[in-house]
Specification:
Number of helices: 20
Strand content: 15-25%
Low-confidence stretches: 1-12, 82-87, 535-543, 603-615
Largest sheet: 10 strands, mixed
Number of strands: 26
Radius of gyration: 30 Å
Distance between the termini: 80 Å
Structural class: alpha/beta
C-alpha cells in the first residue's frame, strides 16, 4: 500500500474514483439510479451552499414536452412604420407562462444575446409570497429554503446562458434569502464575477415599529457579470453626476464644482511654489506641471477658498461633466432611485385602480440599473419575474430620453390575471397614452411595439409527426430570434402557401421557413433570380445580402447540395435539430420508458397533412 493510500485508510477517507468504479459495476441498479448516485457523489462539497433538490411540477412536464412560444396576435401593439431599416421602433416581448418554460424557449432564441437581466423574485418571506407546485410555501415548511434554492438555481443557470459576454444580472432580494442567494450566485456565476451589493432605500419615511430592534427601510440588489474581464473591456455605464454644481462667482461658463489641485507625490507631479492671492505659499508635490497650472490660473479655473488663503482647487464645469457621469455606489437613496410609495402611486395612476399590484419597483430604480449595466443604447433586456412590468416601462422611458433602441423581454405567469390585467395593460397604456384618475393626460410612448406570447408544448418524442409539428409551432420563435415579423404574401414570382413555407422580409433582413423539403429545388431556382441586397454578401445573419432559410429536415442535413448554385445568397439551418441542440443543454433528463413506443410510419403521400395541395410552388 502506498503512503497516500495508508494515510487515507488511517483517516477513514474513501477514494471517490474507486467508489464510482464500484457503483458502475454494481448490479441491481437502473442506469438512472446509477447515474444519480454518481452525480451525488461527484457534487458533494466540503464548503459552500448545500440544499436538498426539490422537483417542480413544471420541471416534470419538461421531461416529456418541449416548450414553444405562440403569438397572441390580437394583443400586438404595433408602432407606426418608419419605412424599414435601423430606424424602426424596438420590438418588445411579453411572454405569459411559467418562467422555466419561457427561459427554455429563450435558450434557443437568445442564448448569448441578452445584455441586462433584472429580476425581482419571490422573497420567500413565508407570508404567501412564494408558490411552489401550486401551493404557498409558509414559514413553518421545513424545506422552505431548499424549495426556494431549487427554484432559483434552475432559472439562474439558464439565465447565465442567455447573458452575452458583456452581460450583467441584477437580482432584488430582502433579508430572508439574501445570504443564500449570494452563495448560490457565487456558484452559478462564479464569485470572480461578483460586481457589487447595492443597498436601495425603498422607504421614504422612517419606520416606527416598536416591536423590532431594527426597522427595515432598504432592500438588496446583487449584481453579477457573465464575464468580468469582457465587461471591463467593454466598459460600464454611469449614473448622473451628484456633485453640487453652483455658481457663487457668477462665472459666465455656468455652474461649477471643484477638486483639489494638490494630489500627493504618487501622482507623479512636479514640485514648484504656488502663491495665493493673499500671499500664502504652498510648496509641495502637485498634480501636473507648472505650465498647466499657469494656464488654468490664467483661464480662471483655479480658485483659492477660505477668502484666498486655502489650498488651490481646480474648477470643473457642469456643462463639461454631465455627459460623463460618475461611478455608481452601493448605496442608492430613494431621492434619486425612487421608493415603493411612489411606485404604487404611479401604477395606480396608470391603471386607475388601487392595489392592483403590491409593492411594484419604481421606474427610477430600473432606469438607474439600465444606465449602469453598460453603455450601449441598443441593449437587449430581460426580466423573467416581470410583475407589474416596470422593467419594460423604464426601458421605453429611457429610450425616449436618450434616443436609444433597447429591446425588452418580460416573462410572467397569469396567476390572478396578472399578465393580462397588470403587466400587459400597464404597458399598453404607457405606449398608447392614458389619463390618470385626477384627469391628467399622459402622452404615450408610441415609438414602441409590444408583442404578446404564450407558452405551448410539443411532445419530446422524436417522431416525424412531432418534428414537423415542432418546426411549424416554432415559427413565432424564429421571428423573435431574428427580430423579423413582416410576413410577405409572395416569394419571388410565387404566391406563398403557408402549408409549404412562410416568408418574412422587412427590406433589410430576409427569412424563409420551409416546412416541406420536397420544394427545395424549385426554391433554389427562384432564389437564383432574386436580389436580397447583395451589397454585403459576406453577411451570415440574414442581413444585407443573404436569405436565412430554416428548413425541415429529419436529421441535420440542410439540403446544402440543392442550394449549391446559390450558396452565396443563403444561410441554411436544419430544423428541428437546431432547436433540439439548444434545448438539450437546459432540459431535465427524460424519464426512462420500460416499453419503447413503436416507430411512427411516415405517410407515403408527401403532401398529406398540407391540405391536399400539390407539392410545388405554383
Amino acid at each position: 500500500m502506498s503512503y497516500p493510500e495508508k494515510c487515507a485508510a488511517m483517516n477513514g477517507r474513501v477514494d471517490k474514483a474507486e467508489l464510482i468504479a464500484k457503483l458502475q459495476s454494481l448490479q441491481g441498479l437502473t442506469d438512472g439510479e446509477r447515474g444519480e448516485l454518481i452525480r451525488l457523489l461527484r457534487t458533494h462539497k466540503k464548503y459552500g451552499l448545500v440544499w436538498e433538490d426539490k422537483p417542480e411540477d413544471v420541471e416534470e412536464r419538461l421531461r416529456d414536452e418541449l416548450p414553444v412560444l405562440r403569438e397572441v396576435k390580437e394583443r400586438a401593439i404595433l408602432a407606426p412604420s418608419h419605412g424599414g431599416g435601423q430606424g424602426d421602433a424596438p420590438n418588445h416581448i411579453l411572454i405569459e407562462g411559467d418562467n422555466l418554460e419561457a427561459l427554455t424557449a429563450l435558450s434557443y432564441t437568445h442564448e448569448g444575446k441578452v445584455d441586462v437581466i433584472y429580476i425581482d423574485p419571490p422573497y420567500n418571506t413565508g407570508n404567501k409570497d412564494f408558490v411552489y407546485n401550486d401551493s404557498f410555501v409558509d414559514s413553518e415548511d421545513s424545506y422552505r429554503h431548499s424549495k426556494w434554492l431549487s427554484f432559483m438555481n434552475k432559472r439562474l443557470k439558464i439565465a447565465k446562458r442567455l447573458l452575452s459576454d458583456k452581460g450583467v444580472i441584477f437580482i432584488s432580494i430582502d433579508d430572508n434569502e439574501q445570504a443564500q442567494l449570494k452563495l448560490l450566485c457565487d456558484e452559478v456565476f462564479n464569485r470572480s464575477n461578483f460586481q457589487g451589493h447595492i443597498h436601495w432605500r425603498r422607504r421614504h419615511n422612517q419606520p416606527n415599529d416598536k416591536t423590532k430592534m431594527i426597522g427595515l427601510v432598504a432592500e438588496h440588489i446583487l449584481v453579477y457579470s457573465k464575464n468580468a474581464i469582457a465587461l471591463k473591456e467593454f466598459g460600464v455605464g454611469k449614473i448622473p453626476l451628484t456633485a453640487n454644481f453652483t455658481n457663487p462667482d457668477n462665472d459666465p461658463r455656468g455652474p461649477w464644482a471643484s477638486k483639489p489641485w494638490k494630489t500627493g507625490s504618487d501622482q507623479g507631479g512636479s514640485r514648484y511654489v504656488i502663491v495665493s492671492p493673499k500671499g500664502d505659499s504652498f510648496d509641495e508635490e502637485w498634480m501636473g506641471d507648472n505650465n498647466t497650472y499657469e494656464e488654468l490660473l490664467a483661464d480662471k479655473r483655479i480658485y483659492f477658498p477660505n477668502n484666498g488663503h486655502g489650498l488651490p482647487r481646480k474648477k470643473y464645469y457642469q456643462s463639461e461633466r454631465e455627459e460623463e457621469g460618475q461611478c455608481a455606489t452601493n448605496w442608492w437613496p430613494h431621492e434619486q432611485f425612487g421608493h415603493n410609495q411612489g411606485a404604487n402611486d404611479l401604477i395606480t395612476g396608470i391603471l386607475g385602480t388601487k392595489n392592483m399590484f403590491s409593492n411594484p419597483k419604481p421606474i427610477e430604480l430600473l432606469k438607474g440599473i439600465l444606465r449602469i449595466a453598460n453603455i450601449s443604447k441598443d441593449n437587449t433586456i430581460l426580466d423573467f419575474f416581470a410583475g407589474s412590468g416596470t422593467t419594460l416601462h423604464a426601458t421605453m422611458q429611457l429610450n425616449a430620453e436618450d434616443g436609444g433602441h433597447r429591446q425588452c423581454i418580460l416573462v410572467t405567469n397569469n396567476e390572478n390575471g396578472i399578465c393580462e390585467n397588470v403587466t400587459y395593460e400597464r404597458n399598453k397604456r404607457v405606449i398608447n397614452g392614458y389619463t390618470t384618475p385626477k384627469g391628467v393626460k399622459v402622452p404615450g410612448l408610441k415609438d414602441n411595439s409590444l408583442r404578446y406570447y404564450r407558452t405551448d408544448f410539443i411532445s419530446r418524442d422524436r417522431t416525424q409527426r412531432n418534428m414537423r409539428e415542432l418546426v411549424s409551432a416554432a415559427t413565432d420563435m424564429l421571428c423573435i430570434k431574428e427580430d423579423l415579423y413582416t410576413e410577405q404574401e409572395r416569394f419571388g414570382r410565387y404566391k406563398v402557401n403557408p402549408q409549404l413555407m412562410r416568408y418574412f422580409s422587412d427590406g433589410r433582413k430576409h427569412m424563409l421557413v420551409v416546412y416541406r423539403e420536397e420544394i427545395v429545388d424549385e426554391l433554389a431556382k427562384e432564389i437564383a433570380s432574386m436580389d436580397f441586397g447583395m451589397a454585403a454578401p459576406s453577411s451570415s445573419e440574414g442581413v444585407g445580402g443573404r436569405l436565412k432559410i430554416y428548413i425541415f429536415s429529419p436529421g441535420r442535413y440542410a439540403f446544402d447540395d440543392n442550394f449549391f448554385e446559390v450558396q452565396d445568397k443563403v444561410q441554411l439551418i436544419a430544423l428541428p435539430a437546431a432547436i433540439y441542440d439548444a434545448y438539450q443543454k437546459v432540459l431535465p433528463r427524460r424519464r426512462e420508458k420500460i416499453l419503447p413506443l413503436a416507430k411512427e410510419e411516415e405517410s407515403k403521400n408527401p403532401t398529406e397533412g398540407v391540405g391536399g395541395e400539390e407539392n410545388h410552388l405554383e
